[in-house]
Write a structure and sequence with these properties.
This protein is of the alpha/beta class. The chain is 39% helix and 19% strand. A hairpin with a 4-residue loop joins strand 6 and strand 7. The longest helix is centred in the middle third of the chain and has 22 residues. It is globular and about 50 Å long. The N terminus is likely disordered.
């Protein structure tokens, strides 16, 4: 864990982060420099994640990363508020992120918060506290922005022979589906997404598990979760699904789908290099879902790709995935261990013209 300190006047990152003409103003005194350094932070309902990266060729190179389950949205579906315990967990994680950005000499950053801060009655107070104590300005993004960022990050994983994809991002407090066309070959940085339609569901793994229970999940409970999500998806599937899915594949980004990939690969320890970009056939997904349904809570805790932090959430995520699969019965699923952070990095770099030589 990085050392934590409390400067009298911490540098601010967030919506006031410098743009192309102001780089370096907030970099601090770090000696870890190598050109413009970007940071993207995603404070979700369940996780706090940070990536620090520098442009590299037609993409970027990650130079630092952080991820911690903080469960900021724990109990919010019942109380409507962020609990003090959840706030303290988030503040601790955010302080580590702040220090990492300072130590890496970050010159431009975007820090976003999602469903928990959108829904909480005390979300504004929480964000003011983050500014006052840490100098970080969290931008609460809407669900459309979430869908666009997920699409931006995952577009490089679209099969170039496919006619399009059904992208899904199963979050802690909401889940997004995006119908996308083929990825264009632009030769200058990651290809921009071709979004044909999107929908956001008001359920994620945390909210669904709190409603139905996550410790002991029977098949009847599991099917009830699947049916509830399927009813929400049905109008979107009617407009963007149908029988013409032969040359369309699914593209999933979330802890749920990376967990399923890890279990399928029988990893003794999670390995992003093996998971990100891997393909799963429909029958392989069926086999993992059946395996997870037959596991006890203790067995899920003991699984190296699930663990105690996700053991009570993973079946809610599986139910959301199963509802999506029934609505869009594609033969193949590509797994993405990437999401909002990568999308923010691509957008910032594209705005700064790092791949085209001029700002967008």
């Amino acid at each position: 864990m990085d050392p934590v300190d409390h400067p009298a006047a911490p540098p601010r990152w967030g919506r006031r982060s410098p743009g192309p003409g102001e780089r370096g103003r907030e970099a601090g005194n770090s000696s870890d420099r190598g050109g413009p350094t970007y940071a993207a932070l995603d404070l979700g309902t369940n996780n706090c994640r940070l990536l620090v990266a520098r442009p590299n060729g037609e993409g970027f190179r990650v130079i630092d990363a952080f991820s911690r389950i903080v469960r900021l949205g724990e109990g919010i579906s019942a109380s409507g508020r962020l609990s003090e315990a959840a706030i303290e967990r988030a503040m601790e994680a955010l302080e580590i992120c702040r220090n990492k950005m300072r130590n890496r000499g970050v010159t431009r950053a975007r820090l976003v918060a999602t469903e928990a801060c959108r829904a909480a009655a005390n979300g504004l107070d929480f964000r003011a506290r983050v500014v006052e104590l840490l100098g970080l300005e969290l931008e609460v993004i809407d669900r459309e922005t979430e869908a666009a960022l997920a699409a931006t990050s995952c577009t490089p994983l679209i099969d170039p022979q496919a006619q399009g994809v059904v992208l899904f991002d199963i979050g802690g407090g909401s889940s997004e589906l995006v119908r996308m066309g083929p990825a264009p070959a632009n030769g200058r940085g990651p290809p921009p997404p071709q979004i044909k339609g999107w929908i956001s569901l008001p359920h994620g793994v945390v909210t669904l598990a709190e409603r139905y229970g996550g410790l002991e999940v029977t098949r009847d409970t599991y099917e009830a979760m699947v049916r509830e999500i399927a009813d929400l998806i049905e109008p979107f599937a009617r407009d963007h699904g149908g029988d013409d899915l032969g040359d369309v594949h699914m593209l999933g980004t979330s802890g749920t789908v990376t967990t399923i990939a890890g279990v399928h690969l029988d990893l003794k320890r999670y390995d992003r290099n093996r998971v990100d970009g891997c393909w799963l056939a429909a029958d392989e997904i069926d086999a993992v879902l059946e395996r997870l349904l037959t596991m006890s809570y203790a067995e899920r805790v003991a699984s190296p790709c699930i663990g105690a932090d996700r053991a009570d959430l993973v079946l809610a995520g599986c139910a959301i995935l199963e509802a999506i699969r029934r609505a869009f019965p594609c033969r193949r699923l590509r797994v993405a261990d990437r999401g909002l952070r990568e999308g923010m990095l691509v957008q910032m770099m594209r705005e700064d013209g790092v791949w085209s030589g001029q700002a967008a």
